[in-house]
């Protein structure tokens, strides 16, 4: 396809991502009045909420390679127009149209793309009237509202045309199933008749470290370890060798990556849980990491639309007085189960949870499988005890702060 025809396709067939009102946390750095088009090889593709990231190697007019860093719109919005995880991979040669950085550095905010297979993608809904692009609020001078306007008048003026709002899956923070599957907290979903749960985990739970027996059971880790594959053993051996020398090695949490599963369930401190008939929501003291276990019988998000992450996608069901939770959909980027044990996208975790001690102890049997890093099933049992007069407070991982820790940074 020649360059003129390519541009024609991008302009007409793709439409413009910019037609959608951009409510973007960093949109101020882009020149939304300008567009540039670049063709190059994909060297990095990150498909993760809140938006995707593409790194493109582009040959300049001088024949030199330039690295273009391109920010995507929200994953939810891109999915509405046919884009998914399988639309792009490292090594593809693609053409991207984007709003360039105001600084003039190589980079931009994506408007449209033609994939390696010739398919075009855009955020434009051609069947709807063009939406007015919103100016970034920080760049707008303040205008006083009408004099004597009450909040009731303001509410009526700004009220959505339909309440309750029905999500189309494109709002900021929407997950892969949003707009398709009833939400766990939708009143109609909560009101559906279901058998009563054998137990309720609502409350705050403290991990039982079994410190005097940590050599037996591993405390917040899992002893004994699994039978490693060659790949898993290579990482484990390197980790242990560095640790014996007093060096920090390969723990992504030191760089503020999420600890994820199963570490969220096996760390000291409070874990707050709120249980509904449709889901269990958790917030951990560990950097306020979040987890949800869906109990409403939903299907798993298809692979192409899956936002792979460190917590995975957890679906639960009841077997008698046991809650069985199966979690898959993990990322293969910097994910450790514990010191020296790395895992990836093939990880599957099955938890079997029971309540004992008059509702004051939660027993969880973990079964881990990851044929890429260890052989067969790796099983352990851990305990959490109910704690009163305790709350989960705000916690943050600040990368700059961590560089001041002993053994970090220079």
Features:
single chain; 410 residues; alpha+beta; OB fold (Dihydrolipoamide Acetyltransferase, E2P); Lipocalin; 2 domains; 9-stranded mixed beta barrel; 5-stranded mixed barrel; 17 strands; 13% helix; globular
In short:
By secondary structure, this protein is an alpha+beta fold. The chain is 13% helix and 29% strand.
Describe it for me?
The protein is α+β, with helices and mostly antiparallel strands. It folds into two domains: 137 residues, OB fold (Dihydrolipoamide Acetyltransferase, E2P) (Beta Barrel); 200 residues, Lipocalin (Beta Barrel). It contains seven helices and 17 strands. A nine-stranded mixed beta barrel has the order 7-8-9-10-11-12-15-16-17. The longest helix has 15 residues. The N and C termini lie far apart (50 Å). The N terminus is likely disordered.
The general outline is globular
CATH superfamily of the largest domain: Calycin beta-barrel core domain
Q: How far is it from the N-terminal to the C-terminal residue, by CA?
A: 50 Å
Question: What is the strand content?
Answer: 25-35%
**CATH level-1 class of the largest domain:** Mainly Beta
Instruction: Quote the CATH topology of the largest domain.
Output: Lipocalin
Q: How many extended strands?
A: 17
Most strands sheet? 9 strands, mixed, barrel
Please list the strands of the largest sheet in the order they lie side by side: 7-8-9-10-11-12-15-16-17
Mean pLDDT: 85
The low-pLDDT segments are 1-25, 123-132
CATH architecture tag of the largest domain: Beta Barrel
State the helical fraction: 10-25%
User: Counting H and I runs of at least 4 residues, what is the number of helices?
Assistant: 7
Topology as a string of helices (H) and strands (E)? HEEEHEEEHHEHHEEEEEEEEEEH
How many domains, as an integer? 2
């Amino acid at each position: 396809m020649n360059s003129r025809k390519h541009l024609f396709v991008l302009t007409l067939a793709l439409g413009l991502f910019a037609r959608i009102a951009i409510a973007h946390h960093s949109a101020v750095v882009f020149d939304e009045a300008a567009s540039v088009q670049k063709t190059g090889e994909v060297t990095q593709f990150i498909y993760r909420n809140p938006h995707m990231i593409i790194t493109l190697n582009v040959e300049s007019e001088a024949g030199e390679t330039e690295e273009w860093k391109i920010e995507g719109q929200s994953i939810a919005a891109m999915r509405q127009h046919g884009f998914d995880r399988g639309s792009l991979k490292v090594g593809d040669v693609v053409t991207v149209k984007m709003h360039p950085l105001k600084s003039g550095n190589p980079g931009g905010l994506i408007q449209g793309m033609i994939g390696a297979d010739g398919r075009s993608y855009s955020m434009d809904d051609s069947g709807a009237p063009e939406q007015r692009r919103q100016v970034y609020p920080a760049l707008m001078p303040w205008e006083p509202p009408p004099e004597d306007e009450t909040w009731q008048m303001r509410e009526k003026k700004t009220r959505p045309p339909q309440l309750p709002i029905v999500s189309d899956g494109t709002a900021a923070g929407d997950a892969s199933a949003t707009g398709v599957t009833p939400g766990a907290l939708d009143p109609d979903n909560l009101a559906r008749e279901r058998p009563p749960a054998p137990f309720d985990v609502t409350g705050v739970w403290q991990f039982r470290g079994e410190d005097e027996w940590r050599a037996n059971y591993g405390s917040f880790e899992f002893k004994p370890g699994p039978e490693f594959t060659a790949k898993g053993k290579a990482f484990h051996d390197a980790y242990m060798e560095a640790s014996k020398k007093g060096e920090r090695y390969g723990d992504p949490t030191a760089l503020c990556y999420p600890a994820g599963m199963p570490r969220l369930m096996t760390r000291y401190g409070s874990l707050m849980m709120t249980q509904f008939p449709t889901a269990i929501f958790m917030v951990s003291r560990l950097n306020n990491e979040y987890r949800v276990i869906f109990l409403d019988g939903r299907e798993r998000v298809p692979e192409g639309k899956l936002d792979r992450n460190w917590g995975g996608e957890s679906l639960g069901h009841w077997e008698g007085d046991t809650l069985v939770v199966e979690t898959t959909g993990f990322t293969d980027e910097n994910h450790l189960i514990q010191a020296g044990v790395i895992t990836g996208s093939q990880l599957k975790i099955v938890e079997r949870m029971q309540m004992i001690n008059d509702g004051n102890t939660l027993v969880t049997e973990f079964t881990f499988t990851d044929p890429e890093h260890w052989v067969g099933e790796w099983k352990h049992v851990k305990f959490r005890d109910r704690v009163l007069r305790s709350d989960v407070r705000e916690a943050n991982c600040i990368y700059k702060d961590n560089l001041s820790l002993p053994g970090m940074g220079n």
